[in-house]
Amino acid sequence: MPLQELNEKELLQLSRADIGRTAILFATPMCGTCKVAERMLEIAEAAGTDYPIYKTNINFTPRLREEWRIASVPCLIVFKNGRVVQQEYAMRSVDHLYKLLKD
Predict the structure, then answer these.
(1) What's the CA angle centered on 60, arms 58 and 61, to 5 degrees?
(2) What are the domain boundaries of the chain?
(3) What is the pTM of this model?
(4) Hey, is 15 helix, strand or coil?
(5) d(Cα 4, Cα 81) in Å, to the nearest integer?
(6) Three-class SS of residue 66?
(7) First to last CA, the chain
(8) Which residues form the Thioredoxin domain (predicted)?
């Protein structure tokens, strides 16, 4: 199942909500590595992750890009109760991402 795409306004609301952990993949449509990362995350999610995973186009999220200091794409941000707890740039394997998202 494809990852749900959110815009910056939706992500800002989500990041400020007291909802536990959430993961967001920052990517661009023309990035091949981003497409691979997205597919790997879809597989990890289908295997049963502990919290939701969303995606967004970094070109349309300038505020979050600055606030979270995202240096490149793909970038997986994991946050908990509005605080960034992890930034992952190297999408090593489905297994690695699955373990990351099972905490």
Answers:
(1) 65
(2) 4-100
(3) 0.93
(4) helix
(5) 20
(6) helix
(7) 22
(8) 23-102
